[in-house]
Specification:
By secondary structure, the chain is α+β, with helices and mostly antiparallel strands. α6 runs parallel beside α7 (about 280-300), α9 (about 335-345) runs antiparallel to α11 (about 390-405) and α11 runs parallel beside α12. The longest helix is centred in the middle third of the chain and has 18 residues, at about 280-300. The chain folds into four domains: about 50-455, Glycosidases (TIM Barrel, Alpha-Beta Barrel); about 465-550, Golgi alpha-mannosidase II (Immunoglobulin-like), CATH 2.60.40.1180; about 560-640, Immunoglobulin-like (Sandwich), CATH 2.60.40; about 645-740, Immunoglobulins (Immunoglobulin-like, Sandwich). The strands form 13 sheets. It has an eight-stranded parallel sheet. A hairpin with a 3-residue loop joins β32 and β33. The chain is about 20% helix and about 25% strand. The structure holds 1-deoxynojirimycin. The site of 1-deoxynojirimycin (NOJ) has 8 residues, from loops. 1-deoxynojirimycin (NOJ) binds next to loops.
Amino acid sequence: MRMPYQFPRLLTAVLLLAITSLTSCGGGGSAVTPPPTPTPTMPAMENHPDLRRRVVYQIVTDRFFDGDTSNDNPAQSAGMYDSTKTNWQDYWGGDLAGIQQKISYLQALGVGAIWISPPVDNVNVLATYSGVSYAPYHGYWARDFKRIEEHFGDANNTWSAFDALVAAAHAAGIQVIVDFAANHTNPISTGEYGVLYDDGVKVTDYATDAMQSGTAAYYHHQAAIADYSDRYQLQYYTLDDLADLSQENPAVDAYLKAAINAFQQHGVDGFRLDAVKHVNWGWEYTLQNAVQSYSTTAGAAMPPYLFGEWMEGIGDTLFADSAKWANNSGITLLDYPLYYDVATAFVTGGSFNTVYSDLTTEAASFAAPNDLATFIDNHDNPRLLSKGATTDQLNEALAFLLTCRGVPIVYYGDEQYLHVDSNGGGDPYTRAQMTSFDSTTTAAVVVRYLAALRSANPAIAYGGMQQRWINNDVFIFERRFNNSVVLVAINKNESNSQSITGLYTALPAGTYADYMNGLLNGSSLTVNSGSGSNPAVDFTLTPHTVAIWQYTSTTTPQAGALTPREGQPGLHVAITGTGFGTTAGTVLLDSTPAAVVSWADDTVVFSIPSINAGSHAVTLKTAAATAASVPASFSLQVQEASLVPVTITLQGEPTLASGEQYYLSGDVVELGAGATDAAHAAGPLLLPPSGSPLITVALPAGVTAHLRFYKLASGSTPTAIESVAHSYTAPTSGTDAISVTWNP
Ligand code: NOJ
C-alpha cells in the first residue's frame, strides 16, 4: 500500500517515521540488494516556503507531456509540429496543460518547484540555417514577452493555461519558476528577423531598428561574439545570430521589466535568467531590484528567488567576474563550476578531491554558497547517462546533488533514466520526449527520499559542507546547522569496498539507520560519544553506495538565509530558518527595529527600515526573546534607493599598462562605498574596439553620488585615480547615459 503523499503546511513537530534497514550490508563485498519498495516507511514531506528547502524539477515544456492536442499545430504558426516526434527541431506537443496534468506525479517525486522553459510567445516562422529548419520549441526565441506561446497555451496567446498551471501547482504546494531570456529576441537572419511585439503590437524588427540612431535602437547592431573573454563583446555583440537587446534603451528597460513583473502578477515564485553573461551586467542588478520591488508592492508572501545561467568553470577567465556579479547583483547562479567536475567524478573516474576543491573555492568566492543552483544534467549538455554513466552512477550523482549545499535541480526524465545518445546525447538529444511517469524507479525514490530530508532537516538547506573523509572514490561530508546534522557517505567505485576508519561526526552518540532505507546499499552507523566531534564505529562502504544518516533538531531559533540580501528602505526581506515560533517577535538591523510583515516558525518577512545605507547585521528575536542572528556573511546591504541603470562613458582616459583595468568608485554603497578593490568597486570598464571605455552601473534613483574613475592592476591600490570626483544625480526612474572626462 502506498502512503498518501503529504504536504502539510508548516509542520512544527515532525517525527520522521522510524526507518528500519531492509538490507544488511554492513560488511564488505559487492552484493547488491534489490531496491526495497519505498512503502510504508517513506518519510513525510514538509512544506517550507524557502526554495532552499525544496527540490526544483526542470522541464522542457515541449518535451514533457501533451495535455492539450488542440494547440499542437496552431494556425498562426502551422507546420512547426511533428506528430511522429522524429524531427528534433520541431514542436512535439508538450504544453502547460500537460505539466498541469502531471502534478500528482511531481508530488509523488517530492518536487517543491518546477522550472519551466521560456513560455513566452516565440517566432511563428521556422528559422533556416544551412538548409535545416528550426522551430523555437525550446522557447528561447521570443517575439512577445508579454504573451504565452500558442503551442503551450492557446491560439489567442492568452495567459489562461499558464494561470491554470500556476494555480494547480500552488494548490499542490509546488512553486513555479519561469525561464526569462532578457538578452535577445530571435534570429536576425532568418525566421521573423528579430521582430518584437509588445502585447500583440509590433514594436520593431532588426532591419527597421537599424535605422534608429544611438540609444533609440532596441538592439545592439554588432558582430557575432568572437572572444568569449572580452567583456564588451559578451554584453554588446550578438550571441548565436540572436537580436541582442539594448537594455540601456529606456524603452527596452521598461518593456523587459514590465514583462517580468507580468509573470509575477501571474503568480510566479522565481526566475531562471538565461544567458546572464551576455546581458548588460549592471542592468541586471536593476532587474533584480525591479523584481524584488514588485514583489513587495504586490504583497507577495515570499520574495522571489533568482538564479542566472553563466557557464564558467573554476579556472575560466571570468570566474571571478561571475562570483562578483552573483555577490553584488542579488541574483545567484547555476553552479556550472561544480557541475563540470561532478559530472567527471561520477562518470569518468574523476576524483572527489577535485569536487571538494571546487566546493572550497566556491565557498571562498560566493557570499552565499547555499543559494547556488546545483544540477547534474540540463537541456544544454548531454545527460550523464549519455556520457556513459551507469544507472548506479546516476543514482549516486542524484543523491550527491540532493544532499550537497545549494538548491538542487533535477532535470526531467533523469528519474526515468531517460536518455538518447545520438551525437553524444548533446542538444537536441538531451531534450528527449518524456515517455514514462513511474514514481517507483530507484532514481525517483532517491529524489523522493531526499526531497523529504531537505524539507525536514534544515542542515541540508542552511548548513555548512564539511569534508569528513575523502579519497578519489569516497566522499563523506557533513551538513550541519545548529544541532541538525546530515552525514553523507558515498563510495562511487563500481567494484571496490572501502573500509572507513577514523571518521568523526557531529551526530550525537547513537545508532542511525540509513535514511534511504538501504536503497543505495547504505547501512546503519554507530556513533560513540567523544569530546567535540564524536567517533563513528569503523565500517565498510560497499561499492556504489550512498548512505545517509541524520539528526534533526528544529526547536532552537536559528536563521539560515536572507532573501534578498540587499535592498532599499521599504523592501520586504525574508529571514528563513528554524524555531522562530508562531508568535511575532522582533527584527533588528543592528539596533534599529524593522517592521515585521509576517511571522511563521520558519519564515519571517520584514520591511527594511529607513536607515543609513550600508551593511547591517540582522538579528531576529523570538517572542520569548531568544536571539537568532543571521550569519555575518548574510548581513543586509541597505541601498539608498531603488536602482536605475546608468551607462557612463569615460573620455580622455589615460592609457592602460599591461594588466591594468579601469574601475569606478563612488560614495554610494552601490559602487562599493569608496572601495577601490576589484570585488567591490564597479568594473572593469568595458573596452570597445573603438571609442571610449564604458560601464553600466546600478545607481540609487534620485541620489547624488560622487564618482571617481581609476586604474587598477591588482589589490586595492589604484595606479592612477581621478583628482576630482564627478558629482552626478541619477534619474528617479528609467535609464540614463552620461559621458565624463577624466580629471587628471
Ligand atoms: C542558454 C540556454 O540554456 C540555451 O538553451 C539557449 O539556447 C541559450 N541560452 C540562448 O538563449
